[in-house]
Specification:
mainly beta, Jelly Rolls, 4-stranded antiparallel sheet, 1 helix, 9 strands, globular
Amino acid sequence: MAVVFSVASCKEPPSREKFILAEDSVFGRYDFDVDMTDTTRAYDLTLYTRLDGADLPDSLPVSISFVSPGGAVTESELVFFSSGAHLVDSSYFSRGLKVPYIQDFLPEEGGIWKLSVYARPAAYLRGFGLVAAHH
């Protein structure tokens, strides 16, 4: 009689990803919750977007705010997604852009951080995504 054991790993994945479609944004604002409960780890945050259409802009300005669990605004800045510098793939009607936003961030406060991205609504904007990785 053979007995088969299955062991599930309880280890947290090294990265989490979320994409918010443009129609699910709140007047062009995309809100992401970033779990940084472990203050002994460093975190990398990468933003990405996809633009669809025949006449796409060369640069996409976005406002970003990064708020600690206690409500302190850590970052608030304007970032430009440039098709020349941040292009990851493209076709005639579509471009994928990716921007490394924060690298090796060591949170002083553990918990759920809030990252908000605001982009003027446009027909060519499919949405925004966030990849949060820890190491």
